């Protein structure tokens, strides 16, 4: 379908998408624009019947989709990208309203959707062949069936697509449950997909935690792909165990950045700060702890402070802003708790104010806490907001141990001029993705997942395709 023939879309009315059709509900909820505090559009809350209908439709659609040649599946996915790309402006505006992101950063997320699907469409499903005098053994991979995707509120579009692209490419059908805080872009994305994809292949049911629990417990759902908190991830795994569902859990992190003494301070300090404050710190792989070599600690911290004080925070409507608000009231209160704790314990605020100014939206200025103790809440817990601690270090083995001294292991960073040395340190860090001389920037080209309590398994990249498949080994003996 050429972009000029794209259907007209209403970006102010929202439905659940079940078996290729929009569906309303008696019960409704709505998001809140975090920059203004104003209520956004009504969204239907899916019932248990809606969910059951969606799973039944996916189960019915699965055999034909599984048997569609992969090149044809790729062709349909790329047709969808062409159509989606005609609505970039509308999706960007919608994402700004539901998340509060500055327009530039909302635009990056919206643009990444096509790139993410496009990259996945270059991949091949792995297969292996082993042969000896007696037999040939073929290791092939087959799709699981009906998958469920539970998506968080911090990157609602790209994290939906991060589940949809590999699931559909590998021949599965998927039911997406968007976050009730940010349902709008996901629902529109999946509504648009019905113009291209067969009914039941990709569907959306919106609702609260109870709906997520029903999806996880459903006996006809073969896999749950969940992105969210560690506490909820543990519940997903517990419920999934009852049907031995496949699960991928991408959970919270407490990422450490280690800054070596040879860095270019003026160049690197703002980058390290960006790693902590990107998307107002609402990133599972944002930098949460910064360890700076003692010989440059004061100078490096000062450069971070200078950059942090220059960061503009505000509404998406103002194009100069680098950061927007915290996305929802619940998270806003949680982040404020870290400020209150740090103030009560007398920690030094190198940048930012312990007393958060009242505003219509959920705005918090980026804040650096200078050298709090190892057992402080700001070191031990994940704030998921724009507040980060720094600490000096002198002994490399000791700082690596400090970085690894956490129940989580999602991401980490090492900064240094000697790239080989930095890469050696990176290999000693217990995290799923370690970045050398960059803040955390996961890409679809590599599997993304965590160590320890940061999750189970991973998705994206060629390896990540296997998370949506079962190994199917055919042993052929020669007669």
Automatic annotation (TrEMBL):
Respond yes or no to whether keyword Endoplasmic reticulum is given for this record: no
Q: Where is the Aldehyde dehydrogenase domain?
A: 29-472
Q: Which GO terms describe its molecular function?
A: aldehyde dehydrogenase (NAD+) activity
Going by the entry's taxonomy, the superkingdom of the source organism is recorded as Eukaryota
Q: Kind of enzyme, top EC level?
A: oxidoreductase
**Active-site residues, Swiss-Prot/TrEMBL:** 250
Q: What is its EC number?
A: 1.2.1.3
Q: What is this protein called?
A: aldehyde dehydrogenase (NAD(+))
Q: What is the lineage of its organism?
A: Eukaryota, Fungi, Dikarya, Ascomycota, Pezizomycotina
